[in-house]
Amino acid sequence: MPSPISTEKQGNVLVVTSDNPPVNALGQAVRQGLKEAIEQAGSDSDVEAVVIRCDGRTFFAGADITEFGKPPQGPSLPEVCDAIEASDKPVVAAIHGTALGGGCEVALACHYRIAVADAKLGLPEVKLGLIPGAAGTQRLPRLVGAEAALPLVVMGNPIPAKKAQGIGLVDHIVTDGDLKDAAISFAQSKIGADIPRTSEMTNNQDGVKNPDIFDDFRAKNGRKLRGFDAPNAGIAAVKAAGEMSFAEGVKKERELFTQLMMGTQSAAMQHYFFAERAANKIDDVPSDTKLIDVKKVGIIGAGTMGGGIAMNFLSAGIPVTMLEMKQDALDRGTGVMRKNYENTAKRGRMTEEQVEGAMNLLTPTLSYDDLADCDLVIEAVYENMDVKKEVFAKLDEVVKDGAILASNTSYLDIDEIATATKRPGYVIGLHFFSPANVMKLLEVVRGEKTRDDVLATAMKLSKTIGKVAAVSGVCPGFIGNRMLSKRQEQANQLILEGANYWEVDDVLLEFGFPMGPFQMGDLAGLDIGWHRDPNKVTTVREALCAAGRFGQKAGKGFYDYDEARNRTPSDEVKKIIADFAEKEGNEQRDISKDEIRERLLYPMVNEGAKILDEGMAQRASDIDVVWINGYGWPLYTGGPMFWADTIGLKTVVDGLKKHDLPVSDYLAKKAEAGERFNK
Ligand code: 3H9
Question: The 3-hydroxyacyl-CoA dehydrogenase C-terminal domain covers which part of the protein (predicted)?
Fold first, then answer.
């Protein structure tokens, strides 16, 4: 196999180029090639400077994640970085695309970094449950200071070249001309100058002078970091960079990195990294399927859902025509969208021009005829089969042939909806999650007759609008809500058997969910779907509505809420539940947290197994993608199916049996055979 690293001499500069598609990951052959290239530069007296660059779409995007967990093969990345930094000839990193993780560490080991304006640099290892492992946590603070290094190491979000220049991570931005030529000239200009080595710099002392920055950072980001191991390790490593020598700091980084690599969180998060990418692929749809060009989108319904969906397209620069039945509803909807954009602008995440740009792409209308030339229409109307069918029949009449008609239904039968049209092949489910402009998940529901190009277009479009998509077959509630209903069933039952409802919520919070089922009910409104007859009480929820406890918006639901929306358990609710349980003849008993957790989560795994068995999900990891992005399942456990693999399917089966809960044949067989859901 030819080496992915090649070298060429351009005058007195050795240009070292990596060509390792798709993202120039730093696999063994790349590391070997880089090390040899540096040795070549060192031993060739004609060479006076070095440029390291990449062909293809990006600079090194990091270590090769597929090598993790396999026996290490030298040279290691830290060795390569040390060799680069030790060069007595100036080495320049020429960055385009993304310099991420190990790629950023290679750049940090170089003596200079120049980048094109749209390049990004970052240390996203925390997103894989790790910290940088090739001295990134030690070199970066020495170069840019601990305070500037913290967000990069601990949050893992890449920054644009301009911002990187602002903190001293990039020396020069190439705004015109060829990056390679600019890098060669830049390298030549540094010949004979003192060589700046990041490991020898002292900007890291800001954290020693003001150690509060570490606690302040932790306090500021506590909510986002809750439950994750790697961010704390990242903070410790950056702190060590100020307190220890470079060699000791590197040792500390290695210890922390190794600990994380051996833990369950990094395995789970690496699983998720590949799961997200796999979910966008459809096994039986050829990857070269010709896509439908979506230049204009129609949305039916300007409520919370319709407006949120519309914003996704507007933000991506795609014009939207939004239909409502009444002018005031239309005005209200567009008003809310504008306000949402303006709030984003206030938080500095959008400029005023971008707000206007997005809103200018919106055409509100009261007439179906204005949807005629849309390439995709998504309905977000009332969740009722007759209403949906009526809307689809109407759309089929007015919208041009070859356009996609999508429903945002969260549980209705897409195939039945499609029968209202003469183009069932063009009908698909696009289930957005509320708030639709924020939540990452898009459940793409493939009807029996949905055409390949319609499906492939939906998957591509999901990327364009920044969503993570997973495909579901047609079944009630699809993947996400179908599994949720099993959890809710148990939650409702548990409180009738004597578990306190706040304990049920707390168990899920402790597991890592952002909220529990009863908090979620309060937030959504307990009166959703309520028949409004206070004398007819068949569930606890109806009993709460009958008592005027409609949820957070009413200041009381399962919980009492203060002005700041802090929740406290309510004695009134406890009594309502106890009365209801007595009426139903439920005996009360103490229920342990373990039982609560097992009864909430194991039935979801069992339902996931059935979904797989029925072919409603293509792969177990798609289910994980749905639950992590749509329902707040903690990322660091890898999603319900990966979590079940981690604790063992036999544990799940035994737990279900212990609580007299059903076990599907598929799950039972897999557990019996000692298999996992994910390979
Ligand atoms: C690290 O560096 C540790 C070091 O500190 C210490 C070492 C000692 N490895 O995302 P895409 C694949 S940890 C292997 O669809 P995009 C990916 O699976 C690493 N494979 O493209 C996909 O394969 P497929 C730190 C990788 O344009 C294909 O490339 N770095 C890697 O939307 C295309 O990827 C990171 O965490 C990899 N590192 O986005 C960066 N990266 O086609 C991870 C990608 O078969 N990568 N692949 O599905 C990314 O964030 C994005 O891939 C990137 C491109 C932004 C680069």
Answer: 477-561, 598-658
Nearest to 622 by CA among 481, 469, 414, 478: 469
Task: Report which listed range, 66-75, 485-494, 577-586, is most confident.
Answer: 485-494
Q: From the CA of 156, how far away is ligand 1's center (Å)?
A: 14
The reply to whether 125 belongs to the active site is: yes
Q: Does residue 124 line the site of ligand 1, with CB under 6 A? A: yes
Residue-wise over 633-645: b if at least 16 C-beta within 10 A, else e?
Answer: bbbbbbbbbbbbb
Q: Is the CB of 77 under 6 A from ligand 1?
A: yes
Question: How many angstroms separate the CA atoms of 563 and 567, rounded?
Answer: 10
| SS3 of residue 9 by DSSP | strand
Catalytic residue among 125, 253, 379, 598: 125
ipTM, 2 decimals?
0.98
CB contact at 8 A, 265 and 129: yes
Could you tell me if 119 and 98 are in contact, meaning their C-beta atoms sit under 8 angstroms apart?
yes
The answer, yes or no, to whether any atom of ligand 1 lies below 6 A from the CB of 104, is: no
Per-residue pLDDT band for 637 (boundaries 50, 70, 90) equals very high
pLDDT at position 11 is: 96
Residue showing tokens 């859902």:
305
User: How would DSSP label each residue in 532-560?
Assistant: --TT---SHHHHHHHTT--BGGGTBSSEE
pLDDT at 535: 83
Cβ 156 under 6 angstroms from ligand 1:
no
* Three-state DSSP state, 378: strand
Longest dimension (CA), the chain: 94
What is the pLDDT at residue 534? 82
**563 catalytic, yes or no?**
no
Rounded CA-CA distance 255/102 in Å is 17
